[in-house]
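Subject: sequence -> structure tokens, single chain

Hey, anyone have a minute? Need the predicted structure for the following. Not urgent.
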Amino acid sequence: MKKRNRLTICLVAGVLILAVSATAAFGSVNGYSKYKEAVKALALETDNFTANGTLKMICDGKEVVHVTEDYAMDGHNMSSHSISKDSMGSHEQYETILNGVNTWFDVNDRYYYQSEYETDSSSLGGNLLGVDQDDEMARRMVNFMEIAADTVVGELKNNFVQVGKENGATLYQVEIAKNQVPSLVNAGLSLFAYSVGQSHDYDYTVNYEDYSATAIQNYEKVTGETLPETFKEGYINGGNEQWYEDNAENWEEKYYEVLEKNNGGIVYVKADGTYDYYADYDAFAAAKPELVADNLESYIGQDMTLEKVLCNFGVDDKGNLTSNQITVNFNTTDQDGEHHTLVITGDVTISNYGTTTVQPLDVGDREKYA
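Reply:
Had a minute. Here:
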């Protein structure tokens, strides 16, 4: 579960990258350069800052994903507090990496968990995205992404507007209408949408209601041993991954044998180890709509176009990105030919560059899971 924090960070970073791509074609050379360099510096060079972000996905007027994250980074140390809400419910977690020790817990846990955190060139301490800039492949990838963004710079530079200053930062706004979206962007989105739809022809997956619970249930069935409840709770919440590697049998194989026998499909495994089989994604979605409510596959399958982008951001006099709010509106067509609206919004503020410190995690009255 603690890996959800990584996902949240990636989602927020993805919104920033999308903002760069979308606004590249519409900023003045000076404004675009400031924005691009600020985002690059935050993602690839900065190792001391505080960020607060919110990401939402709204489909046909209904909010299906809502993620918030408070994040602080100081070299090899970091702390985060994330809350995510989607079709599976709500999840809130705290995590800290401090002096080589990773500590985390879910708000509903009785325990907190700790493990050693090994630092290397691709971990915390280098940059937010963990990219080793001394690596030739990484350098070439960054160069490619930058040139790709620059390539879409066209004649529509008047959309970029400086709207004022606030707290030492210069504020900008970019608004892109449907008829101003570069054809390259919509061609790429159309290709993406079609690939999503085509992927359903090759469904070959096993989905689990509760993977950890099924692993424990299988272990007890095979060995005849009843594991203590405290152990089960700790394992399910990520406190003892080594146990699975040391003790669990290859209990998943039988589910993949079902896929082989049926030349594909989807196997949905319940917590007790029993399962249901579905011939394809559409059959699975019809039977388990609550599990796919926030999946893009429910809204995309034939086409996708960018309808509108509104982006506001601030850059201080040192070239640091201080804020970024973006709203992106899409029109999509699903496999059945039905049209949908998809709106993605992101709101990020970044502060305390060079002055952020990470404090020990307050675990309250929770016990350390041994």
